[in-house]
Amino acid sequence: MAKVTPFRGWRYNPAMVDDMAAVLCPPYDLITPRIQQSLMERHPLNVIHLEAGEGLDWPDSDAGAAGRYAETAGRFEQWLRDGVLQQDAEPSYYLLRHGFTLGGRERSRLGLIACVGLEDYETRQVLPHEFTEAPAIRDRVTLMESVSANISPIMSLYRDSGDELGPLFRRVMSGEPEVDARDEFGSHATMWRIADADGIDAIARFFAHRPVFLADGHHRYEASRHYQIARHAEGNNAPSLAHNYVMMTLIAFDDPGLVVLPYHRNLSGLSGEQLARVQARLSQVFDAEPVGERSAAELVELVEERGRGGRVMAALGPDGAQLLTLRPSAAADDWGSMSVSEAWVLEEKILRPELGDATLQHLGFLHDHDEAAAGVASGALQMAFLMKPFPMDAFEDIVGQGQRLPRKSTFFYPKLPTGLVINRIDGEI
To answer: Which helix or strand (DSSP H or E) is residue 106 part of?
Structure first.
């Protein structure tokens, strides 16, 4: 189903960059002014100079937002002329083993970096799970218009329950990697190139009858579609043109290193009456169990443990910490498959009936449970709801049916590194 193809990636010249870890950065949506400044100081050739955070100005630029990406384009062209970046001689897939540490435990996951054909969502070849916002899409379109390239890969998922690609990947990883970059924060990126005809054919056959699920990068995908449509309007609509594709890193649902963390919910700015009504409705839908003095981390562990057998979340608020378990009698038959999500139940069956269109004015999202608990303790937040991760079997089922999840349902951890491979989207694929 998905058109997955190799491409001639642009990569850092090892003669000019001897420490790849020093030139990598996170994708744009994690880049704060502090992170941007730190990465720029870390290495003059760090890919942050091309990726940039959304709406962030360069500290050494007087051009402001309007000229930011024009300067980026100039820098990119200079790097190409100077040989900082070099293009591989033959179309390739790139196999990434991304190691990281979580909870004191070392993990790793495998991702296949490839170009994937851009399609309208209605074709069901590429399946989204989030809604997007126009400003972020416009920002990434502006970057693509300026540099004619995908700087960072979109993270996507696929199903390989029979481990069909496993033997190929293990064979590739038995060879010498092209990149082996470890940083001081525990991230370890090892990358191999797949350019042999047998490997390329095997991957093409595998994806010929499978969709891909967008995990992280919806705004970049939709920005690429905008860019593609604009090029088609100019008459550049040959199927072989590179702007009909976008760079992705494809990770198997079955990969033991695939980690999904929850986004927690919080409430603020409610009147006393509104808060009382929300609490009353919570007591109608959930059974509450006081849990005493526990840290936020302990509460999250408890929610995960109890949540394996039902819909459970922890609430922090005026009544202290409570474990909330959905009452079987409260779940109606017409709630549908989305009700597997406690976040959906909270928003659609608790908050919206009481707050209506003002719900999003009072509802916030945090993936740091300690930050959520501290906000309640300080009074900055009136309540916080600690969630369990969205189950991946339900994710695949719901998204596979063409539905979108509640906002901020998933936090795929960690984000993919940017800078290992760049995909130019001018000319032929």
So the answer is: strand 105-117
